[in-house]
Every structure is written in C-alpha cells, then in structure tokens.
Amino acid sequence: MQMYFFYGNQALELKELVDELTKSLLPKSDLEHGVFEFDLADFFSLEQERAKKQFSEFQNTCQTVSFFSPKIVVQVNNLQKIPLKKSPTEGIRSGLSEINLVKTVVDGDSVWFDVDSLVDRIDTRYHVTGLQVVEEVVHCSGTGFYLKLDPLWENRLVYRQKGKDMETIPIKTFLDERIKGNLIFEPLPSMPSENSTGASAIVTLLKSYLENPPDQVTFIFTANIRNPREINSEIYKLLKKRAKEVKATIAYDNFRPVPWVIQRAEKKQLKIDSDTADLLIEIAGTDFSILNMELDKLSLLFPPGKQVTPEELLKSTSHSKRFTVFRIADFLVQKDLYKTLESLEMVLKDHPAESIGVFGLIASQFRRMLKIAWMLENGLTENTIVSQLKINQWVARQAVRYTRNFTLIELENIVVQLAKIDLQIKFFSKDALTIMENICFQICQGEFAEKRHIERHWLP
User: Fold this and answer.
1) Are 23 and 301 in contact (CB under 8 A)?
2) How far apart are CA 100 and CA 119, in angstroms?
C-alpha cells in the first residue's frame, strides 16, 4: 500500500496516528531523512513567492530519489485547504445576509428601517435580512449579478436615519449602495448559467500522483474535516480508489470525550474521575490538543497519582477566552458584579461578535436555575434534581447552591427580562457590552426581587 488517507476533526489525534504509521513504514535509521511534511495551506498562501516555493519543493521531493533513504514518506496535510468550486454569487449572498431591516411605525404607517443607520434601538420583533428580500441571485458576467426581488418588496421604500432626521430610499437603490457588484434588477432575455472555477496546478499534480505514484514514495494524506465531501471531489474520488482510508474521531456539537480525558490523564500519572473530566471539557472545550495541554499543566502542578478535584481543576485551568466565558455566568449567579463586569469586558471589548454566545450562556444558566427553583418548591431533593438535570454533576450541584441566592419570583423576572433583550443583543452588537453590563448590574443589585410576580405560562 503506497497511499493512506486519514480524516477527522481532532488535529492532535490525526498527528499521532500519522506519526505511528510513519514509524511502522520506515526503519528507525531512515526516520530523520526519509519523512517529508507539507501543508496544503502553504500552497494557497496569499504570499505568492512562498506558495511557489512550497509547491516546487513538494514536486521535487516526490520526483527525486533520496540519497539518504531508498524509500520516503510524504505527508500531505490539510486537504480541506484546496479551494472548492465556489459559486460566483457567494459574495453577493454574504453581503445580503449582513443587511438587517426592522419594522416600526412612523406617522401611523408600518415602515422598514435600516438597522445600521439607527442611533437608538427600536423595540420590535419584526426583522428581515437582505437574503429574505431577494428571491434569487444569478451571476450574469464579470461583476454583473441579477437580483430577483420578492414581489412584496419590488417598490418598497427603506427608511434610514440621517442625523436627527430620517430619509427614504427605494429598495433597489438601497441594495445597489450596500452590495459590491454591478446589480441588475430586470431579467435579461437569456439568463446565463453560473460559471465554475478551473482546477489549480496543485490539484492537477495531486491527481497525477494519485493515479501514478512515484515508486519510492509512500503518501499519507490528512484532512481536518467531518465528512469527505468537504474536500475536492476529484481528489477524493481518487483517494477512495487508491488509498487506505482511516476515519478518526469526528467531534460533533454534543461530543463529550470523557473516556479520552480519563485515559490521557492516566498516561500522565493523574487520577481524574468522570465528573472532573466532564468539567474540564465544559470549561476547556472538546479539542484534544487543548485538553492535552491542560492535562500536561496539571501533571506539572500535582504529584504522580494525585486525584484532581473539580475545585483544584478550576484554579489550575488556563485563563483562555472559553474559560473566561464560562466564568462570566459563574460570577453572575454568585452576584459578584466586579468579576462579572471585568470578565465581560475582557471578552467583548475587542470582540463584540462574541456577545451572542456569551448572552446565550448566561440565559441558559438562569433558565436552568429557574427550573431548579421550581423543583425545590415542589419538594424535590438535591440528589433527585441533579439526576434529572442530566448535566455534569459538579456543575449541577453548584447550580443548585447558587439557585438559593435568588427568590423564585426573582428568577422568573430575570428570565423574562433576558428574553426581552435577546433581539437587542443579536441586532445591536455594537451596544451589546453596554446592554449586558446593565442587566448584570440589575441582577447583582437584586432589582428583580421586588417586581410583580410573573405567571409561569408567560415565560418563554
């Protein structure tokens, strides 16, 4: 077998699998001079000279017999970096998705406002994007694109704020100003089909090696993907036919590699139970590389055979962005305003787009605590509540403890208020930090404790 293809979305595992295979393919004496590694991302670098140099080195390595080893292994990593055939309309669709319009009332009439022009927020749940206004996008030629509007929007005006006043603009003119490209709103006599991009030189070269590999070379291809459909179809068709395919770990959104963390910890002479392993995943994520790094750090901090507790884990975990986001909700339910605001600013000051994720975590935490409060009111024991929550047991017990910091009515009012500002966070990202600081201040100051009782069936 001269070819192997490994794919999965855990970079550390892919590297370890490839290293293990490489050691089995060559004598130990040839490993230093008989292994060559190339990253396809370098072949498509924006730095043209660098890309040409990497391409040339790859070609020379594969076609030249080595003086040091009769057989060589060539690792070609990140096949997913080969550009796929993209639709010319992708840029137009992306621009349309960034246009946000909200519905409000002006002089008794319902109108649509351009969100980006507004100084003050509008409290409304009626919202559309440019993609909902346009039914079809067709690439005509060059930079020309035909946009077929939804019939209801054909002659509609868009309102936008201009200083203290407002102005109206036809939807077609508005889109023409906002979208890069030569936009056409009337269909042509004959609408062309979309063009496709040609294969690059590297695709052609890879295909030639896959069809007729050099005798002295064993190829190992890797792709950091969930599904082989994510790589160039021409390349994968040949890999399927010529290479031994190995599917490594595929981490999806609900992936919880608790056994992997426990086994990895054992190799580093650490003892971690399933709850602590799950907590590490909760605060560090599911990437094996990051989890391995955190375990390396713990192995340096604690003596061999040490049983790591959740409390020790929290104190020792690296203060990454993900960890900081995790701690924001944790500080808030403890009503620690200073640490909450400090962590919020750390995450959102330079990255306002993260506001949706942070807000979602806060909202889910308080919805969970409200559920716990209802269970406590119904007389359920802590052990029963923890088992019914079906989350990390340590996190669940902490949530039960922090729920006691709030009254039931207070939690109901907080959840309702969070639901009310949900759209503000999504559509006014530039103000997200201020909006979230305000709600955090209200929560920590107990401003929701005295509000009128909310009927439960009103809750979202």
Assistant:
1) no
2) 14
